[in-house]
């Protein structure tokens, strides 16, 4: 993660800056604590993490720089379970899922670029059969990225497009298939069942593929994303997340409840609309981006 992530986290950082300003005062009053609580909640770290931090503050430290390191340590520890997303030698399929507009198609293209660059032979599969423009959008991305592209303009059956995509990847000996799916809300039962079907097809018909379910989480959507991610997890075991749109007005604190509550690691962050605007997630640098210099 480089400066673009640090830049994207400036909003969260300024909130923590305020907190440490308050903490640098001689005596912390009950009102101060309330104000700190309010500021922390605004960073999207969620109620539980806010409570943890307040506890650390209440336990006290001799000076605010000790408090800062204690809070940083707590946040980094929350991300301890982080692991890099390793694409092994065997064939792999990444199914990109998420709610409407959360950045699935763009992320699929970014991932295609990322893994092409490290030498993988990538196929992008357009399994969003709902939005007329979706196939075209992914096709344009595949041309820019320079990877293979599978679609079926006449199919209304995403699972069958995925089937074709995986068969084709086998025939061409491609290593990595990235499937772009339609946006859906967890309340849409039909669409969620369709996602289950895509997963069944992969698991039952293509056991030689390692399947990774990746959810895109729009960083600016806040705590709602947790409910959505949990519901997607009930349909397909979510292996990892990409936090999209961290640039712009995003807050970034959502990472902590994602690890803490849902045990979903964040492997990449999206910091722009181009295919190069994807950064690998690094927990220590991320926490530094939120708190350092504050
Ligand atoms: N600034 C910024 N914009 C992003 C990022 N990722 C995606 N976008 C933008 O968000 C909008 C939606 O992105 P898509 O990739 O089409 O989202 P989607 O989830 O595929 O949308 P549906 O297929 O309609 O559900 C587009 O305008 C993208 O350019 C990001 O990391 N940063
Ligand atoms: Mg899309």
Describe this structure in words.
With 294 residues, the protein is of the alpha/beta class. It folds into two domains: 3-78, Four Helix Bundle (Hemerythrin (Met), subunit A); 92-281, P-loop containing nucleotide triphosphate hydrolases (Rossmann fold, 3-Layer(aba) Sandwich). The protein has twelve helices and eight strands. The protein has helices at residues 3-8, 10-23, 30-42, 46-59, 64-78, 104-117, 132-145, 158-171, 189-205, 224-235, 255-262, 283-291, and strands at 92-97, 122-127, 148-150, 176-181, 210-218, 240-244, 266-270, 278-280. An eight-stranded mixed sheet has the order 3-2-4-1-5-6-7-8, with helices on both faces. Helix 7 links the parallel strand 2 and strand 3. Helix 3 runs antiparallel to helix 4 and helix 4 runs antiparallel to helix 5. The longest helix has 17 residues, at 189-205. The mean pLDDT is 92. It binds guanosine-5'-triphosphate (GTP) and magnesium ion. Magnesium ion binds next to helix 6.
């Amino acid at each position: 993660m480089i400066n673009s992530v640090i830049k994207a986290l400036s909003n969260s950082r300024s909130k923590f800056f305020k907190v440490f300003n308050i903490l640098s005062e001689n005596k912390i009053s009950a009102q101060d604590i309330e104000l700190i609580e309010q500021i922390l909640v605004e960073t999207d770290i969620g109620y539980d993490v806010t409570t943890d931090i307040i506890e650390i503050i209440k336990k006290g430290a001799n000076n605010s720089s000790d408090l800062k390191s204690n809070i940083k340590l707590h946040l980094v520890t929350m991300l301890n379970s982080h692991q890099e997303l390793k694409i092994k030698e065997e064939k792999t399929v990444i199914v990109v899922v998420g709610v409407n507009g959360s950045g699935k198609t763009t992320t699929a293209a970014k991932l295609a670029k990322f893994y092409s660059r490290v030498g993988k032979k990538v196929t992008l599969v357009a399994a969003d059969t709902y939005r007329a423009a979706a196939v075209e959008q992914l096709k344009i991305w595949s041309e820019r990225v320079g990877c293979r592209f599978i679609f079926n303009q006449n199919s209304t059956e995403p699972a069958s497009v995925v089937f074709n995509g995986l068969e084709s990847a086998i025939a061409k000996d491609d290593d990595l298939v990235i499937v772009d799916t339609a946006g859906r809300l967890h309340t849409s039962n039909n669409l969620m069942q369709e996602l289950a079907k895509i997963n069944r097809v992969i698991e039952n018909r293509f056991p030689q593929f390692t399947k990774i379910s990746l959810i895109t989480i729009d960083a600016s959507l806040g705590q709602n994303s947790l409910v959505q991610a949990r519901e997607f997890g009930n349909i397909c075991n979510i292996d990892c997340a990409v936090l999209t749109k961290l640039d712009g007005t995003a807050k970034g604190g959502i990472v902590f409840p994602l690890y803490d509550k849902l045990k979903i690691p964040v492997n990449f962050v999206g910091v722009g609309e181009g295919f190069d605007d994807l950064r690998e997630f690094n927990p220590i640098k991320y926490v530094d981006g939120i708190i350092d210099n504050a």
